[in-house]
Amino acid sequence: MNINDMEIVLSLMQKAGYEEIVDVPEKAEVIFINTCAIRDNAEQKVWQRLNYFWFLKRHWKSNVATGRSESLHPPKVVVLGCMAERLKDKILDADKMVDVVCGPDAYRDLPRLLEEVDYGQKGINTLLSLEETYADISPVRISKNSVSAFVSIMRGCNNMCSFCIVPFTRGRERSRPVDSIVREVGELWDQGVKEVMLLGQNVNSYNDASGVEKEVQPGNNWELSEGFSSKCKVKSVGLRFADLLDRLSNEYPEMRFRYTSPHPKDFPDELLYLMRDRYNICKMIHLPAQSGSSAVLERMRRRYTREAYMELVHKIRKIIPDVGITSDFICGFCGETEEDHKETINLIKSVGYDMAYMFAYSMREKTHAHRNYVDDVPENIKQRRLTEMIEAFRETTGQFYDIQIGTTQLVLVEGPNKRSPDTELIGKSDRGHRVIFNIEPVPDRENNFTRRNPTAGDFVEVQVLRSSRASLYGQALGITRLSSFYKTAKDEAVAS
């Protein structure tokens, strides 16, 4: 999300006349630092960077004289994003470190805020919006010639989980109109992008009600995953996430689609069957659990039980048998007992995940937990529980890589493998696994079977020969198109 936000900022700045983007902060006259407030560790990294930028600004003359800096003026330092909203007063008071503080809904105001600095003022705008989605902005892509890109389809969050700061730093949910998303994806296709990651704090809660003229009753026709509940009031039901995926996958049949980060409550059957039936919607679902204990989940205000989560996992795997499932986990949340922790370990082993993000809990100000709970799990116990979660994950994840051995996977080539750039290429399979294979000429099935080396952006059939817990290794068989690969696989299945 922060990468996509930065691409929006770059577009707005270029329109305001800031044309050149430099490669290092020592050359810059405006330095943006985009921030995250989810965990304390992220904020500490930001303060470290700000100290260095303060040095570039405070000692600009001597830095230029010694060749350390090349900017023509002392750099202006701009803090963007969630931390900007959360700690605006502290940041501005930090010994003149920062010139502008701009929240995630105020990026359009950046040119004016920078002008205020020229007149000796501090620039600040951290107002949250109920409408801002930047739907009319064409982001300036940071990675040129990339084969994949991020597209933000919604902003904000309504769930108010007790541990989470996001609703307070990014505001309430609002979705971009479908047409604006389709337009941006079309622009990316014209630029050679082959895979799009759809983004949102609750991406599958997407609800484009821009074309709805009359309101319906809150929650009416809003189908949740079975066993899940929500206190979010939906005033107008419009086009939902499945509708968006349906249109995108139909209009761009040679483009892959992924999405993150979803909430388990918004996986109606319609969405799961669509994922099963469309070859260009990747068979990978991020399903944040956070905890395996129903008691902890209740304190987290997740609105589901362990049993409901497990039932959803079983349904997903029944409908999409070859799906990869990933997750998020927090250990050491307020009041978590050893028994609660064991239930989380058991859930990790019972479900079996392809990948998981795991963290020790750090309390954030403004959250429900900060107002109502006590952060009562000692840090050493949090770290021990985190280690045990990671070990449990490692015990199970290898099987999901090993079962790929002997199969043929369609891999979107991202570029040379950094460890062996002259001899190996790397890419991702449909399920999101990294696949590494040797650079060698193979038949191009879409060009009279002429032989050539695969390059970034090619879809390549790769036979998997071996695996590790983090990667697959194989041999390239041929270059093909996305639709051709799955049509061939379907024809062979029918013939057998």
TrEMBL record:
GO terms for cellular component: cytosol; mitochondrion. Pfam families: Radical_SAM, TRAM, UPF0004. Residues 1-119 form the MTTase N-terminal domain. Residues 143-399 form the Radical SAM core domain. InterPro entries: Elp3/MiaA/NifB-like_rSAM (IPR006638), Methylthiotransferase (IPR005839), Methylthiotransferase_CS (IPR020612), Methylthiotransferase_N (IPR013848), Methylthiotransferase_N_sf (IPR038135), rSAM (IPR007197), rSAM_horseshoe (IPR023404), rSAM_sf (IPR058240). It comes from the Eukaryota. Keywords: 4Fe-4S, Iron, Iron-sulfur, Metal-binding, S-adenosyl-L-methionine. One of its GO terms (biological process) is regulation of macromolecule metabolic process. Residues 402-478 form the TRAM domain. Its cofactor is [4Fe-4S] cluster. Gene3D superfamilies: Methylthiotransferase, N-terminal domain, tm_1862 like domain. GO terms for molecular function: 4 iron, 4 sulfur cluster binding; metal ion binding; tRNA-2-methylthio-N(6)-dimethylallyladenosine(37) synthase activity. Belongs to the methylthiotransferase family. MiaB subfamily. This is CDK5RAP1-like protein. It comes from Kalanchoe fedtschenkoi (Lavender scallops). The lineage of its organism: Eukaryota, Viridiplantae, Streptophyta, Embryophyta, Tracheophyta.
